[in-house]
Amino acid sequence: MAKIKQARAGDRTFEVFGRDHAERPLQHLGTVRAENKQLAIAHARFVYSERLWVEMCLSPTDSFSGCMGAGQDGMVGMA
Questions:
Q1: Is the model's pLDDT at 47 over the cut of 70?
Q2: HSE value, Cβ hemisphere, 13 Å, CA-based, for 45
């Protein structure tokens, strides 16, 4: 039986982005959890290896800043 890795208290969540052609924009592929950036990179390369990516990058989820959501003023689009 396969052993499933449990997330540890020190693990961080990383957002993973990739592009499969140079002229295409980055797209959000998903998330990985790891204890550091190097392990997150290795995990992302393995988990999202279904395509031949020309670029893949990741960032800790907690480094993103919200620009719209509950409790924030603003509108999307032109008014």
A1: yes
A2: 8
